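ingest -> validate -> predict -> emit
validate: passed (alphabet ok, no gaps, 56 aa)
predict: started
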Amino acid sequence: MNLNPAAYHDSCENCDRRNVKPLDVKPDGPGVQAFYRCPNCRHYWTCAWAAKPATR
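emit:
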């Protein structure tokens, strides 16, 4: 499981700032929960990322 914040960039829905790195990334079951704060407008949000099973 990748807990490197650089792997989970997102965009702010409040001001459309792109490439916002999360403040923290924590394991959450089979995936991770990322916590964000926009450096432009200071908006907070979270995003859940689930592990995708390998396909053959």
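The chain has a mean pLDDT of 90.
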